[in-house]
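writing this on my phone so excuse typos. first protein, seq and then structure
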Amino acid sequence: MLLNYIKIAWKVLLRHPFYTFITLFGISLTLTVLMVLTSFLDHLLGTHYPEVRRDRSLYIMQMDMRDSSQTSRSSGPMSFKFLTDFVKTLKTPERVTICTFVNSSNAYVGSQKIKLNTKFTDADFWYVNGFEFLEGKPYNEQNIANGDYVAVITDDLKKQYFEGTESAVGREIEVENIRYRVIGVVRSGPITRPFSYSDIYFPYTTPKSNYQRSGMRGGYVCIILAKNKSDFAAIQEEFQGRIDRIPLPGVEDGFKYGVVNVGCQPYAENFIGTILGESSNLNAIFFGVVTFIMLMLMGLPAINLVNINVSRIMERASEIGIRKAFGAPVKTLVWQFIVENIFITFIGGAIALVFASVIIHLINESGWIAYADLTINLNVFLVSLLVCLVFGLLSGVLPALRMSKLNIAEALKS
């Protein structure tokens, strides 16, 4: 029966090429926008290179200090000492890395200035993140203990600084009048992943890292790698227990605080919290807004397609009347037209998949997002299938219900 419905839908598509073009154009355009949007959200929040273990990582990005009346606040990254004392010593995680956010520096090749994004990290940074080493290896605990002036650079920086050189390992790079020995070259990661993105990486014991700051605030952030995602609650509870033992009130850089909050959350919650601020249901709010936008993007074209579908169905009034006269149940007729509309929607979805792939490729190649790696992966594909189904139902149910109310006599006269 389902196969017959699909055959009928195909013949209906061929009957009126203009209506078919308008229908497929509206569907494919809408779904293309939704697929690209879904791919971008997946690129932004999903588990991708080099943060290949993001799905089992917790992120600590800032400390929020407030006075006792909670009318004034001071917030920002933490000191290396604070994260070492309160996070590195946690017993539940598999591994913890401490690093800075991206800083800015300059390097020179002759008279040409190269603007650099720099990052100071510990040795565990290379375990928690899954960088692909094209040359050499990462610095280790021994390099850090020795205070070695070593660095890991990206393949893009290698091209700029060591142009024409086969291997950069063992060569020196000068940054802010300090010379470092390159011991590794990694494949560049996107700028949209601030915990891992940089052009050059230094051990935290090298100059200008500020790791010796004694207070709680500083320039460092932290990634906690759990053994399993199920350990998140235990890690958060252990970490919060330590935060609760911070002596209050206190003074930090002249600010008298009576409340200290430090978030320890998965990346998506951390990212959304930074944008929206404090809220009890940040995920629900964010994804509620995204869902609303998607429904609006689907709803408006669906309303236009409803009118086209009604016209298309009314042209088949005589067919409907004959089937009703021979005892076809209303539910069967409604189901047939819904299946036909979903089939047409999936054809539009296939066209949209091609368009979205082309657009995503152009975005990746354009350089709008440095080292972007937007993809149509399994998550994006499954969301797209769901969107196609919802879109097909939205634009097909009302015409099908309209058809079901046709009087047999009136239908046969049409």
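second protein below, same order as before
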Amino acid sequence: MVRWLLLGCGPVGHAMLELLAERPGRVQVVTDDPERVTSLREEGVRATHSDPTDPEMYPAAADVVLVVGEDAKRNLAAVESAREQYPNAQVTAYAGVEADPEFVERLDEAADRVIDATGVLTDYVVEMVDREPARRLRRLLSVLRELEGPLAVVTHDNPDPDAIASAIALCRIAETVGVDADACYFGEISHQENRALVNLLDLQLRNLESTDDLEPYAGIALVDHSRPGVNDGLDPETFVDIVIDHHPPRAPVEARFVDLRSEVGATSTLLADYLERLGRDLDRTVATALLYGIRVDTKDFTREVSKTDFEATAYLLERVDVSVLERVETPSMSADVFETIARAIRNRESRGTALASCVGKINDRDALAQAAERLLDMEGVKVSLVYGYKDGTVYVSGRARGADIDLGETLRDALGQIGSAGGHADMAGAQLPLGILEEVGDDSTESLTEVVRGIVSGRFFETLGTAPVPGVGDADELTLEFPLDEQT
């Protein structure tokens, strides 16, 4: 049950009370207007005759504080008192009548939300505060405020645009409640478009070399992945404060605040939603990064896109730097990427409409995803898997289009027992430790490659329920049908 506290009760407050009377929750009013107190008590509303800026007269607890007096100066004092009394509550303030711009600016710094129009305030509180999205935002802000030091927002290893943008956005949200935050990652940013995004927007990210680098931080947040030690350099036992992700988890996720919504196409969508509900001015840097993150993860709104993704895009569009987006999308492609794509095409193995390709030793793991996308463009191909190894790990990237399978679940079933694997129905990946296979050594690269190919392709095709089909060649077309009992 939501505990509402109204401080001051002019025309705006009275309008709010009429609407709140129809909704569940406990309402308390503190106002210095004695006639209003009498009237409210006759209507059955808990009302206290006192100075709205005096915290001694406030109730013991409140979830949402609405400062709705007519004078901006007094409203500012009430906001500051409420913030000190209820550090975890959501505080929304009305700027008052003909407010001085100086007080409006100070109100914006002190409150979670400031509205200077009566109608907008009413619509905002009714639509936004008393629903699940608003409750999520309140819980997130509450966890942030309770931190006793800076926050490390950790992406998955070698972050993509969605992870990068989400980390930067969460840092901005933390700053609105006075918490310093850094966007952090293990590994490297090697994909040419990802590097262009970081460089052109001048994004500040911290490259972590070991878990010792996290000692100065009082809190840990994970974005675009949900479990420490899985696709990041954290210890699996790391205590996590915040998790925000759009990937369906395979195992339980533990954190003080968890927002997992697999129905949306990108984690950037969730962060854009938070920022819109906060009502703060969104700078072009964050807006541009978030929009690019959504576009990449939804493949320009053609893959696992939802209504929420479109709504977030509409919010961001007016605020992005279009010229930067154009430059990010047309970076030069490195020779390593071209070579990986060429090897993927040359080494492909087909089983009906599915194919897999081992490219051997790699320098740039991001090239695997680009190769998988290219192979999916081949005629008759519905599922593509490209994999290679680097630094003692086999990296796997898969794509699907129009196939009657869930690729994320397929890779979990095929490779989850020997590594970490998962993702979405049409975009997934895996990481497998080479272990004893690595001891084959550089002098026997061909043998190591063959062993890796046998394990990954073998398990993949077996899980798909396919086998080599006589007469299927490069020029042949075959519609692959997966048995019902083999679908995942």
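Residues 167 and 183 are 5 Å apart (CA to CA). thats all i got for now
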